[in-house]
Write a structure and sequence with these properties.
homodimer; alpha+beta; Cytochrome Bc1 Complex, Chain A, domain 1; 2 domains; seven-stranded mixed sheet; five-stranded mixed sheet; globular
Chain lengths: ~475, ~475
Amino acid sequence: MNGAVALPLDLPELSFTASGDALVRRSVLPSGIRILSERVPGSRSSTVGFWVAVGSRDELSALGTTPSRYGSTHFLEHLLFKGTPSRTALDIAVSFDQVGGEHNALTGKEYTCYYAKVQDRDLPMAVSVLADMFTSSVLDAAEFENERGVILEELAMADDDPNDVVGERLFEAVLGDHPLGRPVGGSADTIKAVTRDAVWQHYGANYRPQDLVVTVAGAVDHDELVAQVTAAVASAGWDLTALSRPVERRTAALAEVRRGEALSLTRRPNEQAVVMLGYPGFAAADDRRSALGVLNSVLGGGMSSRLFQEVREKRGLAYSVYSFASGYSDAGVFGMYAGCSPKNAGTVAELLLGEFGRLAADGITDGELARARGQLSGSAALALEDSDTRMSRLGRSELTTGEFTDLDEALRRLDEVTPADVRALAAELAGRALSVAAVGALDAEVFAGLVETDEPEPLKAVS
Amino acid sequence: MNGAVALPLDLPELSFTASGDALVRRSVLPSGIRILSERVPGSRSSTVGFWVAVGSRDELSALGTTPSRYGSTHFLEHLLFKGTPSRTALDIAVSFDQVGGEHNALTGKEYTCYYAKVQDRDLPMAVSVLADMFTSSVLDAAEFENERGVILEELAMADDDPNDVVGERLFEAVLGDHPLGRPVGGSADTIKAVTRDAVWQHYGANYRPQDLVVTVAGAVDHDELVAQVTAAVASAGWDLTALSRPVERRTAALAEVRRGEALSLTRRPNEQAVVMLGYPGFAAADDRRSALGVLNSVLGGGMSSRLFQEVREKRGLAYSVYSFASGYSDAGVFGMYAGCSPKNAGTVAELLLGEFGRLAADGITDGELARARGQLSGSAALALEDSDTRMSRLGRSELTTGEFTDLDEALRRLDEVTPADVRALAAELAGRALSVAAVGALDAEVFAGLVETDEPEPLKAVS
């Protein structure tokens, strides 16, 4: 991966109680494989994830120097379901389907995760199948060509979803040529161009023992889990005796972000226009993340938020309206979204910006702060009922900061946030370069008061 | 509602243990209000629903005799969030947001449900607010006009989603003029036309004590819940001393279904074509529902299903491909879906039909039956971890059959299904009238081999 720090070879075993009475443990095998579990008393299900800290942002370094490799990380993720020497693609699907489990994978900008949620008795099966996929996929050439077609359909499906499109365009506009600005899946052109050799090279370079993090939450016995993972990867013929390189974590050094575009307009003959406004935001581990959570909650985090009240409740201009804060290791995006009639798109964009500007100028009330604390702590407590949430949180912590914050610690940090912190944060964001992305039957002049405008791209049409 | 049977005035109290160690109880107040709870040991959250057995199918009888009322049930659902004499819309939103709860509502074809998921300590608040919304909404005239705009945006958003559109068109095509064939939300024209008086009349006629069913699952004490509901509705000034009419349940008499269209084509300049094939299916309470579950699982219920294997894994023609079975009180729809390149739409539709025809002709193997049983029982067990699922199941059972089937009983029925049952069911379905719905850059001739074709509608375009 880009910009990584080596972890100590003797990364310690961990064991502590988190979030009520859940027991978290981490073991590090001599090969560098990291295994983390969070045992939740009373849980009857287990969610397991096999993680690697490589995502779409790493594709140039992982795969060579040409943009034609974009989307290869996601392509590889698909291919891991297509068979090993001991299991066909159908065998893999049957393994999970016949126990009613959920299984899938997720390629992100900074990691890839293969996961399954099963009843407790089926956890050993899930570990065994995921380990086989992770270590021993064959990437069969015929399957590779078939899957190219499937991925092109997935990209086409996303391209027909205005919300997907506007989100991708906003990230490109706000983050410019920063690698986090690229779409995860690549494009139809890069997927048509990529070769099996390139993806095979990616697989070999990034799916080694020291890259693997296994996390399990719910009904799990840590020692049994370590034995299962050890046995599964040993049977794959991996050299598990010694590290071939240190285990690494991505550095958190902040990147410089130069805006790509002020306005990214995608013209479509849709009923609605979808509009996003965004600024370069903060990294996931930024010290101000609790204040950022409060800002996002007050501005656009629920039905009582300022954006919802102003744009939907008071004016009836949108059905869906919200704000969001996305953080990664070295950069982030803070943004606002609304879907509205094309004729109201300019007005709605001005309302979003007006509400944000008012918050940056005048700050938030004590009542809003108390409400945001309640919302963030209550929703976090509810989310912990799902073993999926816990599994995912465990994996992201290990891959990024290496810091495991339980609910009590998160609440303590939240209690320290003041209205002044939130106002200062909003003012800093509002001073950064604004980008607008929109999809719909719109002309660029609609946003002339907000950003400089360009010629629209040619309109999509069917022959 | 249309076609209802009266329940005995002395509908009994119920109390039994279901699905492991959960305790289900039902109480019926003198006013006819039915209160059901499912206490799940160890649960820290509660999900509560306020239900009424009126959905979009009931709009003609509930609201008069003109189609201009279509969508009024969904309109009313929105208005219940807009304020009571003691709570503004903002107060309602703040109540749930400040504890991090989830709250929303769902209008279906046969029922409407207002629900909230909260931590256990917040259940009394949730009951109190939902009861106030249910009994005492004011439907303010200015809020009514604002909300008309919001609902028009919601419809526009759905219209821009090809999957939403193709689903609505398939139901219309398969069910013809049966009231279940209509879209839940009405159309822009009916929403522009509806008056506050009509919605007010709907509210008064269908939200009385004997219409209300309250269900709670998770952390709940039944006796406390009954006391909370009783106190909340009493403070609304409802006459709770006696039933003004018997409590009713919808009849399960099967309706005759006459197909609306053989082909419903919506031309859009999209990257993908989305295609659905469907037949009139079975009512929710049909004796063959376990066999139908197996049929759906084997045909298109997971990654190991025949449709997924044939269309995606073997041929790489689609990313998303599946089958589904929707059942209501007197009719249903059985269908298949795929999203693919427009140039492959005809081939993909033939593949879907071919796989279904092969299953109807040759049946399923013992291995497929065993796999489907495992899938259905395993996924049902996993779903029971969520209090949302249990709350919803409880409400739908009380509103429809009045029969509470726990997991063991469902598994026993599943064990009785034979390959011959599934084959006979598939053959019966395959003998019914086929309809095709598609959205995309397609001409009707693409489906000429499957159904008779008509002229396409004019293509949507932006000026």
